Amino acid sequence: xxxRPRLGxxxxxxxxxxxxxxxTLSVTMNDGLILRDEIxxxxxxxxxxxxxxxxxxxxxxxxxxxxxxxxxxxxxxxGLVSPAYVVLTPKAGIDSRFAYHWFKSGRMTYLLWAYSHxxxxxxxxxxxxxxxxxxxAPPPLEQQRRIVAVLDTWDRAIDQIERLxxxxxxxxxxxxxxxxxxxxxxxxEFGELVDLISERIKPGTAGVPNTSIELENIESxxxxxxxxxxxxxxxxxxxxxxxxxxxxxxxxxxxxxxAAPEFAGICSTEIWVLRSKRARLDPSLLPFIVQTQxxxxxxxxxxxxxxxRADWELVSAAPVPCPRDTNRQAEAANLLTVAFNAARPEYHxxxxxxxxxxxLLKRLTGGEWQLDDRFDDTPPSHSDLAGAVA
Length: 390
Prior knowledge:
- Helix content is 32%, strand content 18%.
- It is an alpha+beta fold.
- α4 (141-182) runs antiparallel to α9 and α4 runs antiparallel to α10 (344-364).
């Protein structure tokens, strides 16, 4: 009986030392390989170039501790990566662009997890020798390239929407800066405008939601809430919030995690629940005040080194720009809210495209390799998607 092919039949472990003059790259969960300088709050390295690993165009680098979660990247050009990564160089019979998509599919992430070793999930590591033993059955090379062409079409559409969203985010940021400059002379201590709500509640109590907003559910710098997490009677205490409250992540405040939920609920106690003193502040302006440089500067004066948190005494004393006339507050909030909500249609389109790609990836990397001729260069609607795969 012939031996079943394994990943080691398709990839080698490149262990060439880096060289001077090449950019340093980092592996990210969602964006693949990117320039290290583009990562927020990056840590400086003292390693010399030849102490890094060389990654060549077409290679795939992966984070040993997070490969099972999809932490890998396809190199578009030569560069340097941390020696803590594994660099894969493709052999004959595999297109690394196909493999990059394939490694993020459900079946492959399961296998990558199953072949990782560690006492707990946060310590799982996938060494190359174990990676090489994973059994696989890729389609023929020509079919791999057809699949790549289709998936790349979705990626281009996703990238286009993300660029439009980024442009609209920049507009909101510019308007917040303009607002702060306009009312710089009317600054008020934050604590005079807002109360910090410390109401704690036990999940499982009658009338309490069974889901909670956690820090990971708030997108940095955008104000978006991305899902919620289930909680039960065994879960720790949570903070209660109401419609009109603004949330701000006090743990690692430099991440700028804020949100203004349009529903009442509960959240992590690592999230401040901020409530406007209605006689002093229109609640709709509060989500934008926490985006001003004046607020952010105070919030990022952290206490603690291992788990840095914002200090309420410092933040409450921070003078923030705010007109005293509530009618002017409402006018400013309306302008900012319109700009903030302008990206909502793009977020819906982006979510739809990602769902389509996920379904397509599942079908194409689940052994249903054949594509029919209905695929062209334009992503079809979700309703058309299922029939496009033979």
